């Protein structure tokens, strides 16, 4: 597919066959598909590790799935997957390998980048993180005044924030409840203010997380955090070494900031920011849950990596989910994808996936730089159920849009819930099952009439149904399950990027805004003239300055 001269994606026989098949399926309803195949509810399921994945409520038949797998084969998904695992530089626009899978490779595996095995380095950093985490957790690592560090504040943004922030919340029951763990990402000073206003600097550890160590938000917040710390501890710069550590690929910048390189936890340019949460970027999480639980998380990632690499296409969950997304984007005109976890602890899960998916596949040129004329990554959105049911589900049920949705739920409530609250779990899950049922099968006009509804209200109370969903069910939310889920989505995103023939591992689109922000900032503070500023922005800057009394 990548080679010049081969047909572009939407002119391949496999794509055209899918288009024809879509026409044939027309408005075929899930009600019909389930009637025709009574085994569909068990046949269209996969078991991967702890995850039971039900894809029976998708607008697909055996033929659809075969055609989608043929598309994957024709577009070289398996070959690109092997190239990724082998450490080839598949991030072509940045000339980098894409090796987040090496972050969870067992010791002894050999994965080479430029002829060097990277796995020993991965384990050396993990061991260093484990030793540091244990020292903090036990109180052996003390602050400048000899106090144990019980407040952990991670300063980072994007991939240096969302993963550990999401997982600290998801795994809250596994965390040391004696620790206060907070995340500061926004350059809005209110974020840092709220994070530290009730903390004792003597007991506070700042983890400055930045792959590049040049991200303006993170460096600005880190400098402000250092000022806050020094204010609170009497101003002796020596305090910084006890209260600041860095997670980065950039030792020079870390040292320049004033953090002792001994307190730096390294990762590498072959780890993309949004794929970095199981690298040193996970230090705050490791301190919160402890090294053993962190290793369980890694084992969950690894389980899904092995599945993705070895399972046959018919049983390969990331492949399947990736292809389903392509089916809806290309042949059902779906613009978005909802991820709806039925777990309060997964409140940050979809936000994490937004970066993973949208920063990876929000692209409009192919690997050869040619505009694509097929849909790429969807808008990913969603919040935990049941809250969304009382807010935006109406649009999914009765609106005009096709919105494929993933429902993620657990058979058991977390162990520490008192019996009365644990008993609420069945009600939560009853909603979980009811929603996918209602979305798939709806309610016909005849069913509405049979309830004696007045004729003029029948159209309003009719549910078309036929809304596609995936259900992912696990026994309970554990570190390993988080690893399995994240790797499932990582590889799903990979599959889609491979079929669409885009580079899922760069993010040039976010650069322009950064450059422009740097240009505009002096205009805000000093009223400096910004050459080339458009008329709208120039006026907005003038209004802003006047509203600020400048
Ligand atoms: O602006 C986008 C981005 O580069 C993300 O890809 C990345 O996760 C985030 O910024 C933070 O970058 P860094 O870890 O280098 O501070």
Topology, element by element:
Blueprint: H1 13-25, H2 30-36, H3 40-43, E1 45-48, E2 51-54, H4 62-74, H5 77-86, E3 112-113, E4 116-117, H6 119-138, E5 151-155, H7 162-170, E6 180-184, H8 189-196, E7 204-209, H9 216-233, H10 240-243, E8 244-248, H11 251-257, E9 264-266, H12 283-289, H13 291-310, H14 317-331, E10 336-341, H15 349-361, E11 379-381, H16 393-398, E12 405-410, H17 419-422, H18 425-441, H19 445-450, H20 458-461, E13 469-474, H21 479-500, H22 511-526, H23 535-547
Parallel strand pairs: 5-6, 5-7, 7-8, 8-9, 10-11, 10-12, 12-13
Antiparallel strand pairs: 1-2, 2-13, 3-4
The chain binds 6-O-phosphono-beta-D-fructofuranose.
6-O-phosphono-beta-D-fructofuranose (F6P) is lined by residues 157-160, 210-212, 215, 218, 273-274, 359, 507, 510.
Explain what this protein looks like in three dimensions.
This protein has 550 residues and is of the alpha/beta class. It folds into three domains: 31-90 and 311-505, Rossmann fold, CATH 3.40.50; 116-293, 3-Layer(aba) Sandwich (Rossmann fold), CATH 3.40.50.10490; 515-548. It has helices at 13-25, 30-36, 40-43, 62-74, 77-86, 119-138, 162-170, 189-196, 216-233, 240-243, 251-257, 283-289, 291-310, 317-331, 349-361, 393-398, 419-422, 425-441, 445-450, 458-461, 479-500, 511-526, 535-547; strands spanning 45-48, 51-54, 112-113, 116-117, 151-155, 180-184, 204-209, 244-248, 264-266, 336-341, 379-381, 405-410, 469-474. The protein is globular, with a radius of gyration of 25 Å. It starts with 12 loop residues before the first helix and ends with a helix. It binds 6-O-phosphono-beta-D-fructofuranose (F6P). 6-O-phosphono-beta-D-fructofuranose is lined by residues 157-160, 210-212, 215, 218, 273-274, 359, 507, 510. Its EC number is 5.3.1.9.
């Amino acid at each position: 597919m990548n080679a010049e001269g081969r047909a572009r994606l939407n002119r391949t026989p496999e794509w055209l066959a899918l288009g024809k098949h879509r026409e044939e399926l027309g408005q075929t309803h899930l009600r019909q598909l389930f009637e025709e195949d009574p085994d569909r509810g068990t046949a269209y399921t996969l078991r991967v590790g702890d995850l039971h994945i039900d894809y029976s409520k998708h607008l697909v038949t055996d033929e659809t799935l075969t055609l989608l797998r043929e598309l994957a084969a024709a577009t070289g998904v398996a070959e690109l997957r092997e190239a990724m695992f082998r450490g080839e530089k598949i991030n072509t626009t940045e000339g980098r390998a894409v090796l987040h899978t090496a972050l969870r490779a067992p010791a002894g595996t050999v994965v080479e980048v430029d002829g060097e095995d990277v796995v020993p380095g991965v384990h050396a950093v993990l061991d260093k993180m484990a030793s540091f985490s244990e020292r903090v957790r036990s109180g052996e690592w003390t602050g400048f005044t000899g106090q144990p560090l019980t407040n952990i504040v991670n300063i980072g943004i994007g991939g240096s924030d969302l993963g550990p922030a999401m997982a600290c919340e998801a795994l809250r029951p596994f965390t040391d409840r004696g620790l206060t763990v907070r995340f500061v990402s926004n350059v809005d000073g209110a974020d840092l203010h709220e994070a530290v206003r009730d903390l004792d600097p003597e007991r506070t550890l700042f983890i400055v997380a930045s792959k590049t160590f040049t991200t303006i938000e993170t460096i600005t917040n880190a400098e402000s955090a250092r000022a806050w710390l020094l204010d609170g501890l009497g101003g002796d710069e020596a305090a910084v070494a006890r209260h600041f550590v860095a997670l980065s690929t950039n030792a020079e910048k870390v040292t320049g900031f004033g953090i002792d390189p001994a307190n730096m936890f390294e990762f590498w340019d072959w780890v993309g920011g949004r794929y970095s949460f199981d690298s040193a970027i996970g230090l705050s999480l490791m301190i919160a849950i402890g090294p053993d639980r962190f290793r369980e998380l890694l084992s969950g990632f690894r389980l899904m990596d092995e599945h993705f690499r070895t399972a046959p296409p018919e049983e390969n969950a990331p492949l399947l989910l990736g292809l389903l997304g392509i089916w809806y984007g290309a042949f059902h005109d779906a613009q978005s994808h909802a991820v709806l976890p039925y777990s309060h602890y997964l409140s940050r899960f979809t936000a994490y996936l937004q970066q993973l998916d949208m920063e990876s596949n929000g692209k409009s040129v192919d690997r050869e730089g040619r505009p694509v004329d097929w849909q790429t990554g969807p808008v990913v959105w969603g919040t935990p159920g049941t809250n969304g049911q009382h807010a935006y589900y109406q649009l999914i049920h009765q609106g005009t849009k096709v919105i494929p949705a993933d429902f993620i739920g657990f058979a058991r409530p977390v162990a520490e819930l008192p019996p009365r609250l644990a008993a609420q779990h069945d009600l939560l899950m009853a909603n979980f099952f009811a929603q996918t049922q209602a979305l798939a099968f709806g309610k016909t006009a005849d069913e509405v009439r049979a309830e004696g509804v007045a004729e003029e209200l029948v159209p309003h109370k009719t549910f078309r149904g036929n809304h596609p969903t995936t259900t992912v069910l696990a026994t309970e939310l554990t570190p390993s399950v988080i690893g399995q889920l994240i790797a499932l989505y990582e590889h799903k995103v990979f599959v889609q990027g491979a079929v669409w023939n885009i580079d899922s591992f760069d993010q040039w689109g976010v650069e322009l805004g950064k450059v422009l922000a740097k240009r505009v900032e002096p205009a805000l503070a000093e009223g400096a003239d910004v050459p080339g500023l458009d008329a709208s922005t120039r006026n907005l800057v003038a209004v802003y300055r006047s509203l600020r009394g400048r």
